[in-house]
Design a protein that fits this description.
- The relative contact order is 0.17.
- The two termini are 16 Å apart.
- Helix 1 links the parallel strand 1 and strand 2.
- The chain has one domain: Rossmann fold, CATH 3.40.50.
- The chain contains 6 helices and 16 strands.
- Helix 1 packs across helix 6.
- 25% of the residues lie in helices and 33% in strands.
- With 213 residues, it is α/β, with parallel strands linked by helices.
- An 8-stranded mixed sheet has the order 2-1-3-4-16-15-14-11. A 4-stranded mixed sheet has the order 6-5-7-13, with helices on one face. A two-stranded antiparallel sheet has the order 8-9.
Length: 213
Amino acid sequence: MTIAVIDYGMGNLHSVAKALEHVTHENVVVTRDPRRIHGATRLVLPGQGAIRDCMGELERSEVKGLVLELLSKAEKPLLGICVGQQMLLDDSEENGGVACLGFMPGRVRRFPVDMHDAHGNRLKVPHMGWNQVGQHQPHALWEGIDDGERFYFVHSYYVDVSDDATLFGTTDYGTTQAHVAIGRGPVFATQFHPEKSSAAGLRLLENFVNWTP
């Protein structure tokens, strides 16, 4: 049994791997080797930084075709994290517009520049720090995690899915409701960083390790 953290040069690869090792006795590898990825029982697609850079590195590392193949077959559990979530959608407004993987219908949008909280205080972009996540519908990865639990975020762009059936979690930032947990079939993805989200994040990773879609 092996969990492959897909290495295309972007994302907190080793932080994710260490968090996974904390919750499982399964073998966790950081790799871009197609044979090891194909042979893995579970996959993690991380991402960090600008979407153009992530999609570009996915292409340059020759991993994009492999990821598209894995998504089309939908045979193994896959967890997307941060930009790894955003890449699953059709496109992103970032960097003047970037085509993504098109696995789930929807768009990645930028937070408005001038946002305020309920008390009139100006909110910063990027959205950085802890925020509550509302569970839009049940999912195996929510097991043992309270609705409204807090997770750790760092992002200036947020997912807006167009199919409600793919939406599993939201968070409010100002007047914006960001779609921060999405899924379809054996794929689940979060905008927040479970590897940085203390006990709740580790529980989500443990649920992923034990998930049988």
